[in-house]
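assembly run, all chains below
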Amino acid sequence: MTTGSARSVTQPAAIAQSATSRGLPWFLGDVSVITGRNLRRLMRVPTLVAFATVQPVLFVLLFTYVFGGAIHPPGVDRYVDFLLPGIFVLAIAFGASQTGVAIADDLATGMIDRFRSLPMTRSAVLAGRTVADAVRNLFVLLLMTGVGYLIGFRFHAGAAAALAAIGLALLIGVAFSWINALIGLLVHDAETAGLAGLMPVIVLTFTSSTFVPVATMPGWLQAFAKVNPVTVTVDALRALVLGGPTAEHVSQALAWLVGLLMVTVPAAVLRYRRTTAG
Amino acid sequence: MTDRAIVAEGLVKRFGAVDALDGVDLQVPAGAVLGLLGPNGAGKTTVVRILTTLLRPDAGRARVAGCDVVRQPAAVRRRIGLSGQYAAVDPYLTGRENLQMIGRLSGLGRGSARRRARELLDTFELTSAADRVLRGYSGGMRRRLDVAASLVARPSVLFLDEPTTGLDPRGRIGLWQTIAELTAQGATVLLTTQYLEEADQFADNIVVLDTGRMIATGTSDELKAQVGGDRLELRTAPGVDPAALAATVADLGSGPPVVDADEGTVVLPVVDGPSVLGDAVARLGAADLRVTDVALRRPSLDDVFLALTGQSATAVGSDLAETGSRR
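ok done. output:
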C-alpha cells in the first residue's frame, strides 16, 4: 500500500536472513532453547521433581529390602549389586513416561501449534525434550548410585566400566524418551499418554531380568524374558557393573537401542510435522 | 513485494465427511485488517491454520507475505505471528522467559530476545508480573502474554484467532490499541471473531463465513446495509398480540419484522433508528398496544445470519469441530 508499509517489513526480513542460513548451529540453538525450557519445568513442576528424586530413591530402598532377603542370584554376593542396574532402567523408564505426558499436554494447550508456526527447526521441540530428559537421567543415576553406595552397592569392574554403565543407561533413557514422545503425539491426551507410557514398562520390567534371574522363571516365560529388550539392556548394564564378559551383552543392547531409535525418531518427527492441536 | 499480504484462492479442507472449508477466497492488502466473522464451526480457525502453515489445504492456493503456504512454509513462518484460540504459553515459565524463548526460536540473538521481551512486557502492562511463573497469572494476563508472543518477531502479517476471548474490557482496549499501532506501521492483520461489533470496530473488510462457505464480504458499512442497520426490539405486555404489534410498526422498518410469539417479541430492522423509535412509540400509544420494553440495538451476528441465510447463527453453528484436524 503506502511506502511506509514497505519499511516495516524490512525488520522481519533481517530475521528471515539469519533463518535461511540453516544447518547445525541453527538446530543446536533451537535444541538448547527447548532443553532450557524443559529443565526449568523439571525444577518447577512438583510431580516432575518427585519423579526425578523421591521415586528413584524409593525404588532402590524398597526393592533392595523387600526382595533382598528372598532373592539370591547365583554368583552375586549382595542383591543390591544385582538389583541396581535393573532399577536404573526401571526409574528411567518411569521418568520417561512424563515426556509423553508433557508432549500430549503441549499439543492440547496449543504450544506445539505455536512452535510449528515459528521459523524453528522441525525436530528441535522433540530433540530438546529428550536432551533435557538425559540431563535429568544423569542426575537420577548419580542419586541412585549414591543411595546404593550407602546400602552396600559397589561397581566391581573399575572406573571405565562404571562410566560405560552410566553412558549406556543414558542411551537407554534417550530411547525411552523418543518412544514416549511418539506416544504423546499419537494419543493427544496427557492422561492416556502417561498410562500408555507406563503399562508396557511395567509388563516388560517384571517379565525381564530386572528383579530376578531369568533362569528362575517357568520355561515359557523364559523364552519371552530372554528376548525382552529390558532383559537385554539390564543384562548389559549388569555386566558392566558386576564384571565378567561384556562385549556380547553390550553389543546386543546397543543393537536394540539403535534399532529402536531408527524407528522412533523419524516416526516422531514425521508425526510432529503433521500433527496439530484439536 | 506484492501489495497483497494475504491471497487465498478456493481453499478446501475436509475432515472426514465434514467440509470444514468449501472454497474460500480472500484478498487482504498490506497494512489492512480483515475480520473473519462467523459462529463456531464456520471454519474460521481452519482458515487461520492453513494460512499459518499448520494445516495443508485439500485444494486451493494461498500466499502470505508473498510466499506460498504449502510450497514455502518456512518462509511464511518467518513473516507471520500467530495467536491461537487458546493462550499457548508455558504455565511453568515466567512471562519474561516465555517471550525470550519465543524470541530465540524466532531467530533473535540472546540480547535482542531479552530487549524485545522487555519492550513487549511493557507494552502489554505485564512488567510487574514479568518474573512470576504463569500459573499465578489471570486468564486475561495469559491472553495478553500470548498476543505479545505473537508479536516478538515483528511479523508483517499477524493472525489473531478470537483474540479478545478471555480479555476484560480494559484488556480489549489495550489489544485494539496495539493492533492499531501495528497496522499504522504497515503490518497486516487477520482476526477472527464471533462478534460483529468487534469486526466492525477494527476491520477494514469483513468476510462472513458459514459452515465453510463465504456468505458475505465487504466493509462493515456495506455489510450493515445488507443487514439493514439497527434493530428495534419491542417486547409486548401480557395479553397483547405480538402480530398486531408487528403490523402496526411494519412499514417503519427497512425489512420485514420478525415475530417471536413465544417470547412475545418483535424485532424490526430499521435504518434511522432514533427517529423511527419516536414514531414507533407514538403509533403504539395511538393503537393502545402496551409494551414492557423498547430497545434500539446494533445488529448482532445473529441478525447478520438471519439476514444472510434465513437461519439464526445459533442454529447454523452446530457442534461442528471448529478446530478439528486430528488425523
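The radius of gyration of chain A is 22 Å.

Residues 79-108 of chain A form the longest helix (30 residues).

not gonna interpret more than that til we talk
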